[in-house]
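Entry 14. Structure prediction run on the chain below.
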Amino acid sequence: MDTSNKSENRVQAYLSDSVYKAFREYYDTEGLNESKAMEKILSDFLLKKNQRCSIANNYQGKMKYLESRLSKVEAIIKTKDYLDREKVNTNSLKVTN
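Output returned:
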């Protein structure tokens, strides 16, 4: 038996149930007609999707910054390892930015 098809069916059933619950909530409690309730569900979905994309873009910028910092730290470590290996007297070196 195909397990990927089974899990796909479960996901579809869950989504169908979630959409149906949202539809009933908008239709019953907010008194919206069927088309307005569906519009509200779609707009909520798109809004949440846009929020997730915005968060992902923000994290992407932070990741680039951290990668840049990491490469600088790696360069410092390699330099220190080289100086230690070559037995350079680091007390006489001046550290600059």
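The chain has one domain: 3-92.
Filed with the rest of this week's runs.
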